[in-house]
Amino acid sequence: MNKKQARLFAIGSTALAALAFLGLTIDSHRQFGKLTNADRITADVSRGQDVWHENNCINCHTLFGEGAYYAPDLTKITKLRGEAYLTAYMKDPSKFYDENKHRRLMPKQNISEPDIKALISFLDWVSNVDTQGWPPRPILVTGASFPGTAGGGGGGAPPGARPVSGAEDPIALGESLFRSAQPACVACHSVAPGVNMAGPSLAGVSARAEQLLASGSYKGAAKDVAGYIRESIMQPSAHVVPGPMYSTNGTSFMPATYGTSLTPVQIDQLVAYLSSLK
Question: What is the 3-class SS of 93-127, one letter each residue?
């Protein structure tokens, strides 16, 4: 290739690259409204964005992979934590931490209740933006796991669980649901003894349920262990575990949506798995 050919090749390839870049840019802008659910940007969402900036949340947290990477990426936080939990957390984060154990604490921002509600609306809008897999490896909240990913903070065979084998084993299928339901149970619960996250550890939940049913302090309607676990999934506020980390005013922070998001067969499988945690 002589100098003239090399020059023409450079000019041509640059022009083609520029055209491809321009085309992709135009196509991206064409899809932004749909990808970002622009029609769902309400006054609350806009106010929540202002609250996010006014409190310098990005100095510690990240959205869409952009931020300080000092604290968890919050792009999908409302897929992992419910509104009741997030509201109580933002009112007083210290209730969710042991300063001597965790050291790195979120400061109390003294955000008003309307602004907390707006901020959650903003984060919920963010969580529904189609990021097409970005960021590829966000810093997640403790134990978080998204459907289709490897297990999170509840990994490994739980102590006391019956060995499972075969794709049709209800316990094996229930364990898979524990990691892949929306939101994933493993995002809030560990199956390791003593590892309490947003929800209490479920290690030995079957034995504890049996003791609770016999204690006289149980307030729900279940008659046996399987019924108690089913009730905890379908109606988490029927009997709440004491403590500010898990409930407020008698209402559990656990989402009450599994009765509609999971089929009866899936509920049976999840109950079978949790019942195996002796």
Answer: HHHHCCHHHHCCCCCCCCCCHHHHHHHHHHHHHHH
CA end-to-end distance (rounded Å), the chain: 75
Region of 255 (left: φ > 0; alpha: ψ -120 to 50; beta: rest) is: beta
Mean pLDDT of 119-147: 77
Query: Cα–Cα distance between 67 and 158 in angstroms, integer?
Result: 35
Report which of 227, 196, 193, 189 is spatially closest to residue 209, judged by C-alpha positions. 227
Q: What pTM, to 2 d.p., does this model score?
A: 0.70
In this structure, the dihedral spanned by the alpha carbons of residues 44, 48, 54 and 60, taken in order and rounded to 10 degrees, is: 180
Pairing of strands 251-252, 66-67: unpaired
In the structure, what pLDDT confidence band is assigned to residue 103 with cuts at 50, 70 and 90? low
Contact residues for 98 (Cβ-Cβ < 8 A; gap 6+)? none
**Could you tell me whether strands 62-63 and 251-252 are parallel, antiparallel, or unpaired per DSSP bridges?**
unpaired
DSSP conformational letter for 5: H
Query: What tokens were used for 134?
Result: 């970005």
Question: What is the dihedral sign for C-alpha 218, 220, 223, 225?
Answer: negative
